[in-house]
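Field reference: sequence -> structure
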Amino acid sequence: MKPTAALLPPYDAYHVWVMPWAEGFSSYGWVMLMGFFVVAACGIMGVFLVLRRMALMGDAMSHSVLPGIVVAFLISGSRSSGPMVFGAALAGLLTAAAIELVHRTSRLKADAALAVVFSSAFAVGVLLLSFWADAVDLDLDCVLFGEIAFVPLAEGWEVGGLSMPWPVVRMGVILLIEGLLLVLFYKELLLSSFDTALARALNIPVMRVHYALMAALALVVVGAFEAVGAILVIAMLILPVATARFWLERLPGLLWATLGLSAIYATLGLHLALYLDASIAASMAVLAFGLFLLSWVCRLLLSLIQRQAIQANLETACRML
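Structure field:
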């Protein structure tokens, strides 16, 4: 009989913790930086989606930009970032408008309208990708799941003798643009996320802010496709803010916590992938889910301890009376 395979691979501390920094940093360093850029960009966007109770919009956008990418590729015949970003952004805006239109002109509630639009758009994108783009190096598995390990192999931009892979440069620029827009329109985003009535009373164009946010979301999603794919990007959009909200409520704290968690996911996720010999992007998402569970359990235990302490204080006060 064949020996049963071990559930987990043997643990090699040098391979897991030392090798990426001592021997393979020229490759793994770009992987970690790309992971940080992707999770930070998605996480910042996810903060506003969760605050607006639009968490599923990230799911819808990550799926519905697929037909936009495929159509842009079929029209341009190029995998360059310009047509791809334009097609994805256009598909994202059309998705947001279609969801709003279906919701307002039918008896469907917002969540049902969202499910109808994004599932249909994703199915159309998969069919287009399967039938027309299959023979021209636009891989379905890569689009759906991504492969961040290939980032160091991409063509680079030479700066002072250092070759910076274009996917890392592109994602860094997207994160920089996102941060700049956040600084410039912080008040509008804050008010329209927490109190739309007050925002309208202050003459803030709420719908314009909404569609601008959807366009930015489409830009972030298409930038993250190459690293984590359409499916895993959903985890990157929601898990950082979901974890941070166990401990923080104010918007600045959530944004800074998202950046900190992004660095943790990118670094420890890579080490976890090396140990398991598994997908790096999936390991980052699994680590994010693990930290979410840990925060959830810790918060439950803390709440239980606090309730017991309050009950004990009340009982002591009652005896003193």
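Note: The chain has twelve helices and two strands.
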